[in-house]
Amino acid sequence: MNMTTSTGKLPGHPFLHRRGQQLMLEEVPLADLAARWGTPLFVYSKASMLAALAAYQRGLAGRKAQICYAMKANSSLAVLQLFARAGCGFDIVSGGELERVLAAGGDPAKVIFSGVGKTRAEMAQALRAGIGCFNVESESELDVLHRVASELGRIAPVSLRVNPNVDAKTHPYISTGLKDNKFGIAHENALAAYRHAASLSGLRVVGIDCHIGSQITDSAPYLDTIDRILDLVEEIEKAGIAIAHIDLGGGLGISYNGEAPPAADDLWSALLARFDARGHGGRQFMIEPGRSLVGNAGVCLTEVLYLKPGEEKNFCIVDAAMNDLPRPAMYEAFHQIVAVCENPGPGTLYDVVGPVCESGDWLGRQRLLHVAPGELLAVLSAGAYCMSMASNYNTRGRPAEVLVDGSQVHLIREREDARDQMRSERLV
Ligand SMILES: *Cc1c(COP(=O)(O)O)cnc(C)c1O
Q1: Relative to the CA of 292, which ligand 1 atom is closest?
Q2: 176 Cα nearest atom in ligand 1
Q3: Where are the domains of the chain?
Q4: Domain 9-45+295-422 belongs to what architecture?
Q5: For domain 114-289, is the CATH number 3.20.20.10?
Q6: Is residue 292 in contact with ligand 1, taking CB distance under 6 Å?
Q7: What is the pLDDT of residues 38-94, one digit of tens each?
Q8: Is the predicted pLDDT of residue 113 greater than 70, yes or no?
Q9: Which residue, 2, 67, 35, 89, is CA-closest to 336?
Q10: For this structure, is 341 an active site residue?
Q11: Which of 133, 300, 357, 386 is catalytic?
Q12: Most informative mutation of 56, 217, 288 for ligand 1 (most atoms within 8 A of CB)
């Protein structure tokens, strides 16, 4: 399988290309980075992240809009710093993420706090920091937030996450907009929940939000969502409760394996046309993109340790594993895997697997590769939900991370060692 086109470009990865046999990210040969910092190694392109953000900014140009990067996709400080400097707010899901935003120089007023299970301590922390909005997911959360805010003598800005009950047709673990999942408030209960919120002195209603799923590759579910949400907005405002902003969540997909999701600017021109048609084009818009800002900006470099031919299958055993890059094991997700230095000649079909003691520890199945032990592979589309989901299973240190900027490289996270992992533990 030769992924590279005659121009040296890899489809869907505009900042990744071949120079001769060598795989480059922007102007940097990836093999050099592996030689310098070892493997497994995550490498991100700054230009790719900023280009992905620019597509959203173009799509929303001339509107009142705030882009809040859903940082659970990749919460490394230098990545947050990059987006904060570019004007982004952040969609957080924990108090720890709020601390990261502050450490990276983000503006707390541009933070929205999502998630079904916020604790009182997290609510108090976010109120003290002065975040922009709590995206509340249940009526009981409204009551708790009202109490916590009242005790602190503050008023919590709130939006209710409404479940529009549209099917985003994604993997069941990453679809969130259907009736039978744990997220959001059912559409038919939303008006009552807004009335309840408006009656609580510790809360101030500022918006409405939804988030229908992830890796969505079609604009239709978003358009359906707009209609469902605008029906509600009109109903809620008729009841005398003003809705200042409309937050459509995140979820736009990326190309992992030839998927062709709409570009963010094209998607937003279609969505804004629908808002305009219904007379809501002057609203304040919020969006919470995660994967689509960072997913295809990153690769994970890994070294081939052993080739293990078998009767049924050949295994290519590499030094990256499910703890570093959990998406294949967790969702059976597909990531392209290519040789960092392309060898001429035909390949062999391999299952690419890691060293972890689990049969689920695989990165790719039945991949045509021409590689030898000691050579490097690049797992593509590894910028989102990889490092941020990495664990220490098997007492494996989490990988180092590098940010590429043109021909410059920055080590943005050191490789974790066993001592780092044992630091908070005690013998009895
Ligand atoms: C995860 C999440 C997002 C981001 O989703 P992506 O698919 O990465 O764009 C946005 N909003 C909420 C509430 C989320 O949970």
Answers
A1: 9
A2: 15
A3: 9-45+295-422, 114-289
A4: Beta Barrel (2.40)
A5: yes
A6: yes
A7: 999 999 999 999 999 999 999 999 999 999 999 999 999 999 999 999 999 999 999
A8: yes
A9: 2
A10: no
A11: 357
A12: 288
